[in-house]
From TrEMBL:
Residues spanning the membrane: 21-42, 62-90, 97-115, 149-167, 179-199
Gene Ontology MF term list: arylsulfatase activity
Domain Sulfatase N-terminal: 213-547
Keywords: Membrane, Transmembrane, Transmembrane helix
Protein name: Sulfatase
Listed SUPFAM superfamilies: Alkaline phosphatase-like
Taxonomic classification: Bacteria, Pseudomonadati, Myxococcota, Myxococcia, Myxococcales
Family: Belongs to the sulfatase family.
Length: 700
C-alpha cells in the first residue's frame, strides 16, 4: 500500500474523498432501482399500451423526471458522503479508510433510514417490493409494526458522530472556537426562553368567536358506516367518531347517487343529480370541468363565510372543478404528474430522503399508497390559522385513508391483520383492471386481511377527526361549529362476494351508503338516530338550514334539519326516490360479475384520452353517449330497491326488498310486477335526461 494512502488527508481532501464515495454509492443505488423496477403502472395495474404511449407522447416528462431523480441521488450522496468524510478526517483516518468507510457509512445510513420509512409506511414500498420476492416480502412483514423512530435514531448515529467529531477537533485546536460555541449556546438558551414566553403570551389570547356558527365537514373517501364501532362494528375502529355521533344526530341510511368521488362530491355540494350538474362521470372533459356551479361553498361565501377545502390524494377534483371555495389546498391528478409519481415510487432507495424534503418531490404527497393524515393535519392547521376572527369559516377536510389500497401508517398499520398471514393482501389491495390467470384463488384469509387493512385505515381517519377536534377546542371554536361527518361513497371489500372498490355496480349496499352525522350544541339533538332515508342531494340543504342560510333555488334536495333539531322525536318526512347510477367501467376484462350484464365497450386504455395542453385524463367524445347509455341505474323508495341493467338483449330489471332482505341478495321482481312497474315510472321521472337521447335506449 502506498504511504500516501495511509496518511491522514487534509479536510479538503477528506471532503472530496467522502463526496466521491457517497456519489458512487448512490449512483449504484439509482442504477439498481432503475434496472430492477422498470415498470410504469398504477397501483399494480400495468399496460403496454400506456407504457408505449408515455414514451412516445410524454418522453420529455420521463427524461426530466430521470434527470430529477439522478440529481436527487447525487445530491444526497455528495452531502452525506462529505459529512461522513469530515467526521473521518476529524478521527484522523487514512485516505483509503476515509473513502471506503464513507461509502460503507452511506450504505448503513441508507439502510436504517429505509427501514424507518418502511416501518412507518410499508404500503409505499409494498407497491414495488412485496410481490418481487419472498426475501423482500419477508423484510416488509418483519419491519411492519416496529417502532419507526428507533430506525430513524439509528440512521442519525453516524452523521451526528461525524458532526461531534469535527466540532471536537476544532475545539481542541483553537480556543477561539470555545468562545464561539459558548456564545451560540447562550444565545440558544435566551432564544428558547424568549420563544417560550412568546408562545405562552400567544396561547393566552382567546379567539373571539363569530356570532354565526362555523362549519366543519370531516370526510374520508370510501368510509363505510357499518365499519364504525359506534354503529355496532366488532372492532374498536372509531372512538372519536363514536363520541361525535353520541353528541349529535346520525342518519343511519344515507345513499349516494354515483359511488365515485368526483360525481358524488359534486352532487353533495350542488344538491343536484349528475346529469343536472355536468360532472356526470369521473372522466369529464374541459367543458364540464369549467362549467359554473352553484354550491354549498358559493352559498356560504355569499353570506360572508370564509370557505376552504383541504384534501389529500383522492381530493384532486377540488382543484380541478370550480366549486367556489375561496381557499383550495388539494393535489392535481394530471397525466404528467401521474407519470412522475409512478416513476418515483419505484426508486425505493430515494423514497426515505424525499420524506425529509417533500417540497422537492411533491408527487410523494400524492401517492395513493401513502395516506398518512399527518401532512393533511398540518395543512388544516395552517388554513385555520389564516381564517379571520371576525367572520365564520366553512372548512371541508377530505382524507383518503379509507380509499384503496387502505394504506394506514404506523402504528395502525397491520394491527388487525391475523398474525402469520403471508398472502397477497397483507398490505392492502387495489381492484384489478385485468384478471391474472396465474394468480391463486382468493381465500377467506385474503378477504379477512383486506378488511383488516381497511379497518386500520378507518382508525387512522378517526385519529384525524380527534386531532382536528382538539385543535378547534384549543382555539375555542369547537362548540360554535356545526360539525358534519360524511363520505363520498362506500366500499366493497370482497366480503359480500361483490368484488372490491366502488362505482362498478349497484348490488348490495356497501358501495352506496355513507355516514352522515351532524353536531351543533343547542341546535342539533344529541344521541339521536334517524331511520329516515337521506340522499346525498339532501346534505347541502340540511347543512344550510342548520346554519340559517337560505338554499339556492337550484338545489334539488330537501332539508332534513327538522329531523335533527332538539325536542321531541320528529315525525318522518314522506319517502322520496333516491336515484343510484354506476360510473364509467374502467375495464372490460376484470372478471367481475357485472361484466355479464352490461352494454359492452372497451376498457379505459381505449376510451380515454389525455388533453395535450392540460394533461387532464378525459373520455373521448365519441364514447360519451355509449358510456352514459350503458350505465346501470336504479332507485330506492320506501322498502324497495329497483335496478335497471341495460344489456345488448334489452334492459334487465331486478327488485329487492330491503326490509325483509337487508343484504339485498334475493331478486323478487317476478313476485311484485306492480311494484316494478310503479318504480320504473318513478325512476324514469327521476333520471335527468342528460344524454340528449330518449331514455331507455340500450344500443351503443
Amino acid at each position: 500500500m502506498p504511504a500516501f494512502a495511509r496518511t491522514p488527508p487534509t479536510l479538503a481532501r477528506a471532503l472530496l474523498l467522502g463526496c466521491r464515495a457517497g456519489l458512487l454509492v448512490f449512483l449504484v443505488l439509482y442504477t439498481l432501482c432503475a434496472l430492477l423496477n422498470m415498470q410504469l403502472g398504477y397501483q399494480g395495474n400495468e399496460s403496454g399500451i400506456v407504457t408505449e404511449y408515455v414514451w412516445n407522447t410524454w418522453r420529455s416528462v420521463v427524461l426530466w423526471q430521470v434527470a430529477r431523480l439522478i440529481g436527487a441521488y447525487c445530491t444526497v450522496g455528495l452531502v452525506l458522503g462529505a459529512l461522513l468524510g469530515a467526521g473521518l478526517w476529524a478521527a484522523e483516518r487514512s485516505r483509503r479508510a476515509v473513502f471506503w468507510l464513507s461509502g460503507l457509512g452511506c450504505l448503513v445510513v441508507e439502510a436504517f433510514l429505509m427501514a424507518g420509512d418502511m416501518a412507518r409506511h410499508p404500503h409505499l414500498y409494498a407497491a414495488t417490493l412485496y410481490a418481487r420476492s419472498e426475501v423482500t416480502a419477508a423484510l416488509l412483514r418483519g419491519l411492519s409494526g416496529t417502532q419507526p423512530s428507533g430506525w430513524y435514531m439509528a440512521a442519525l448515529v453516524l452523521p451526528v458522530l461525524s458532526v461531534l467529531a469535527v466540532v471536537g477537533r476544532w475545539l481542541s485546536e483553537s480556543t477561539r472556537w470555545r468562545g464561539v460555541l459558548g456564545g451560540v449556546t447562550a444565545a440558544a438558551v435566551v432564544a428558547g426562553f424568549t420563544g417560550l414566553g412568546l408562545a405562552r403570551t400567544a396561547g393566552s389570547a382567546e379567539a373571539s368567536a363569530p356570532a354565526r356558527p362555523n362549519l366543519l365537514i370531516l370526510a374520508s373517501d370510501g368510509l363505510r358506516p357499518d365499519h364504525l364501532s359506534g354503529n355496532g362494528y366488532s372492532r374498536a375502529t372509531s372512538p372519536n367518531i363514536d363520541r361525535l355521533m353520541g353528541e349529535g344526530t346520525r342518519f343511519n341510511d344515507t345513499v349516494v347517487q354515483v359511488p365515485r368521488t368526483a360525481p358524488s362530491w359534486t352532487t353533495l355540494l350542488t344538491s343536484q343529480y349528475a346529469g343536472e350538474h355536468p360532472v356526470v362521470h369521473t372522466l369529464v372533459g374541459r367543458e364540464a370541468r369549467e362549467a359554473k356551479l352553484t354550491t354549498l361553498a358559493t352559498a356560504l361565501g355569499a353570506q360572508g363565510y370564509r370557505t376552504a377545502v383541504v384534501a389529500d390524494y383522492a381530493g384532486d377534483h377540488f382543484s380541478r372543478f370550480p366549486y367556489g371555495f375561496q381557499v383550495v389546498s388539494a393535489p392535481d391528478f394530471r397525466f404528467p404528474d401521474l407519470v412522475r409519481q409512478r416513476m418515483l415510487i419505484t426508486h425505493v432507495a430515494l423514497l426515505p430522503w424525499t420524506a425529509l424534503a417533500p417540497g422537492l418531490f411533491k408527487e410523494r404527497g400524492e401517492f395513493p399508497e401513502l395516506t398518512d393524515p399527518a401532512p393533511l393535519r398540518t395543512r388544516v392547521r395552517h388554513v385555520l390559522d389564516g381564517m379571520p376572527e371576525n367572520a365564520p369559516f366553512a372548512l371541508v377536510v377530505f382524507a383518503s385513508s379509507t380509499h384503496f389500497p387502505y394504506a394506514a401508517p404506523w402504528p395502525q398499520e397491520g394491527q388487525y391483520v391475523e398474525h402469520g398471514y403471508r398472502g397477497p393482501w397483507r398490505f392492502g389491495a387495489t381492484p384489478r383492471m385485468e384478471v391474472d390467470p396465474n394468480a391463486p384463488a382468493t381465500t377467506p384469509e385474503d378477504v379477512a386481511a383486506l378488511g383488516a387493512n381497511y379497518d386500520a385505515a378507518v382508525r387512522t381517519f378517526d385519529g384525524l377527526v380527534g386531532s382536528v377536534r382538539s385543535d378547534l377546542e384549543r382555539r375555542g371554536r369547537w362548540d360554535d361549529t356545526l360539525v358534519v361527518l360524511l363520505s363520498d361513497h362506500g366500499e366493497h371489500l370482497e366480503d359480500e362476494g361483490l368484488g372490491q372498490g366502488h362505482g362498478d355496480h349497484l348490488w348490495g349496499s356497501a358501495g352506496l351508503r355513507i355516514p352522515f352525522v351532524v353536531r351543533l350544541p343547542g341546535q342539533v339533538a344529541s344521541g339521536r338516530e334517524v331511520a329516515q332515508r337521506a340522499r346525498s342531494l339532501d346534505v347541502a340543504p340540511t347543512v344550510l338550514d342548520l346554519l340559517r342560510v337560505p338554499a339556492p333555488e337550484s338545489f334539488r334536495g330537501r332539508s332534513l334539519a327538522s329531523l335533527a333539531r332538539p325536542g321531541s322525536e320528529p315525525k318522518p318526512l314522506p319517502d322520496v326516490p333516491a336515484l343510484i347510477e354506476t360510473d364509467v367501467w374502467f375495464s372490460d376484462r376484470d372478471g367481475q360479475p357485472y361484466q355479464t350484464v352490461r352494454m359492452p365497450y372497451p376498457w379505459l386504455y381505449e376510451i380515454a384520452m389525455v388533453e395535450g395542453d392540460t394533461g387532464e385524463i378525459a373520455l373521448k367524445p365519441e364514447w360519451e353517449g355509449p358510456v352514459r347509455r350503458a350505465r346501470h341505474r336504479g332507485v330506492y323508495l320506501g322498502r324497495w330497491k329497483l335496478l335497471e341493467l341495460p344489456t345488448p338483449d334489452g334492459v334487465r330489471v331486478q327488485l329487492f326488498d330491503t326490509v325483509s332482505d337487508p343484504s339485498e341478495l334475493r331478486d323478487v321482481a317476478g313476485d311484485h310486477p306492480t311494484v316494478v312497474a310503479t318504480l320504473r315510472e318513478k325512476l324514469a321521472a327521476e333520471l335527468p335526461d342528460a344524454t340528449g337521447e330518449a331514455r331507455g335506449a340500450v344500443g351503443p
